[in-house]
Write a structure and sequence with these properties.
The complex is a heterodimer of chains A (254) and B (241).
Chain A lengths: L5 E10 L2 E11 L4 E6 L5 H8 L7 E6 L2 E2 L2 E4 L2 E4 L2 H10 E4 L11 H12 L4 H14 L15 H14 L4 E5 L7 H16 L3 E5 L3 H6 L3 E6 L2 E6 L1 H6 L4 H9 L2
Parallel strand pairs in A: 3-10, 3-11, 8-9, 9-10
Antiparallel strand pairs in A: 1-2, 1-4, 4-5, 6-7, 11-12
Chain B lengths: L2 H12 L2 H27 L3 H16 L2 H9 L6 H6 L3 H5 L1 H26 L3 H9 L4 H31 L11 H12 L2 H30 L11 H7 L1
Classes of the chains: A alpha/beta (254), B mainly alpha (241).
The complex binds adenosine-5'-triphosphate and magnesium ion (MG).
């Protein structure tokens, strides 16, 4: 089996007395699109945020392209041994947030070139050219000089996707990218994500869009109470839900 | 109305304006640097750093500036032998430096809190987006948190600058010949207190109007994202729809 692009093993995380992740393992192979489903509070966001160390897991392993993140024992539990390593790995894992989180004081173009220019230190002219191509790709080329506050939610999320793509990431994490959008704007974002999937990008998508999970993803993972309840190809999962819980979840999320 | 007297008084008082401006700009500049340090200590998350910063803010916000000026100018004179030993006496003997120090420390305490509040108001999601793309702490502070916090802090900070301009008048009590000192001297010579203080007040007023205008301009320039959306050619909108 080829080396997974992103590999998470037995991830555990607790907040105070609440154990949110009780040992989740997940490998993402190159080009895989994994939909992560689960009820509210099942730990989907927490798991995704552990993958790029926005939350530091209490236990478990994370590796990107075979490079494992090194942990050491800190005063308040484990912490990354080398902050530089985390910053390096984050450049290779892009994240798209539910609430877009575009930088409000920068135009769309400035948002897109920020990480390439100021984090990855690539030549500005090259980054601008790439950014313009990315904005065209997500369909907001004409909004390059607009500020986020002047865009619709769908346009903001597409700008955020362009910003993520500008990092040239090996993996993209999406945390409910369409949940904050008005229903009529969901389609334009899903179309862009579908296009990325077709290009063979490796994506982990937390979503409530059953259509996307069924039609676009190569694998569906269902979390329940901080554990992987079941997982498999969407055709099998939705054809004959392997567990009663997932069956009920599908029933209520049609 | 004795316009000739008002005019000559105004011109006489104006000779104190350079010192007033020097004190205000010096205190605001030094105070800002100190305030950055205070704010950084306050948000550091370390008790060892935030404790002293909090005590500093508490002391300087909780006591009158007048008392602070007196304590630094007269109070530190008690420690003259000690200060001489350290070579600091020439500094603390000079009323100008004492006034500047008092004003700087005072504005540092207030501005530190303004900056801390502004940093706290930066949306967590935007900071998270910076971390998520691999940005280091310093870069995030310089590129994301600083610029957003600056825009947030400006209105309150411009009030602080204006307070400092007015507070320089307290330097008159330790014999610095700024606008208020000259005004008092003129009054003792002419006994025409009302006219002279009206002139002095108008000078402060003009300075503060200029500062307010400058900050407005800066705010406007820094916040295109808060203004109305730029108008687009209808054709572009239509082509996109
Ligand atoms: N920083 C935190 N501190 C304390 N508790 C937290 C924190 N973040 C998440 N939790 C708790 O952990 C649990 C899982 O949260 P998480 O956000 O991962 O769920 P989710 O599956 O993404 O839910 P949703 O569909 O509502 O987004 C919830 O009970 C939540 O209250
Ligand atoms: Mg969530």
């Amino acid at each position: 089996m080829p080396e997974p692009v992103l590999s998470a093993g037995a991830i555990r995380k607790r907040f105070g007395h609440l154990e949110v992740l009780k040992g989740i393992s997940l490998d993402a192979g190159a080009g895989e699109v994994i939909s992560i489903l689960g009820a509210s509070g099942s730990g989907k966001s927490t798991f995704l945020r552990c993958l790029n160390l926005l939350e530091v897991p209490d236990d478990g392993r994370i590796a990107l392209g075979g490079e494992a993140i090194a942990f050491k024992q800190g005063r308040r539990g484990p912490e990354p041994a080398d902050r530089r390593q985390v910053q390096r790995l984050r450049q290779r894992i892009a994240m798209v947030f539910q609430s877009f989180n575009l930088w409000s004081h920068m135009t769309v173009l400035q948002n897109v070139i920020e990480a390439p220019v100021h984090v990855q230190k690539r030549p500005r002219a090259e980054c601008v050219a790439e950014a313009e191509a990315l904005l065209a790709k997500v369909g907001i080329a004409d909004k390059r000089d607009h500020y986020p506050a002047h865009l619709s939610g769908g346009q903001q999320q597409r700008a955020a996707i362009a910003r993520a793509l500008a990092q040239k990431p090996e993996v993209m994490l999406f945390d409910e990218p369409t949940s904050a959008l008005d229903p009529e704007l969901v389609g334009e974002v899903l179309r862009v994500m579908r296009q990325l999937a077709d290009e063979g990008r490796t994506m982990l998508v937390v979503t409530h869009e059953m259509g996307f999970a069924r039609d676009v993803s190569s694998r569906v993972v269902f979390l329940d109470g901080g554990r992987v309840d079941c997982s498999g190809p969407p055709a099998e999962m939705f054809g004959a839900p392997p567990t009663e819980r997932f069956g009920r979840f599908v029933q209520t999320h049609r | 109305m004795d316009f000739a007297f008002l005019g000559s008084t105004w011109l006489t008082l104006l000779s104190g304006l350079p010192l007033t401006l020097k004190l205000a700009s010096g205190a605001v500049s030094c105070g800002f640097v100190l305030a950055l340090a205070v704010a950084a200590m306050r948000v550091s998350g370390s008790r060892l750093l935030s404790g002293p910063a909090q005590a500093f803010v508490f002391a300087f916000r909780g006591t009158p500036l007048l008392v602070q000026v007196f304590l630094i100018y007269y109070g530190l004179g008690q420690f003259r032998p000690f200060l001489q030993e350290w070579g600091l006496w020439p500094f603390f003997r000079d009323a100008y430096w004492c006034a500047l120090l008092a004003l700087s420390l005072n504005t540092a305490a207030y501005s530190g809190e303004i900056i801390r509040g502004a940093i706290g108001s930066v949306p967590a999601g935007q900071i998270e987006a910076a971390r998520a793309c691999g940005m280091g702490r310093l870069t995030a502070a310089r590129r994301i948190i600083g610029p957003i916090a600056l825009r947030q802090a400006l209105p309150a900070y411009s009030n602080e600058i204006i307070s400092m301009v007015k507070a320089t008048s307290l330097a008159s009590i330790i014999t610095l010949m700024e606008v208020t000192f000259i005004a008092q001297k003129l009054i003792s010579q002419t006994f025409r207190a009302v006219e002279i203080f009206v002139c002095a007040g108008s000078i402060y007023l003009l300075v503060n109007v200029a500062i307010t205008r400058a900050v407005w301009a800066l705010e406007w320039w820094l916040s295109p994202h808060l203004r109305a959306r730029p108008r687009e050619p209808a054709a572009l909108e239509a082509a996109h729809a």
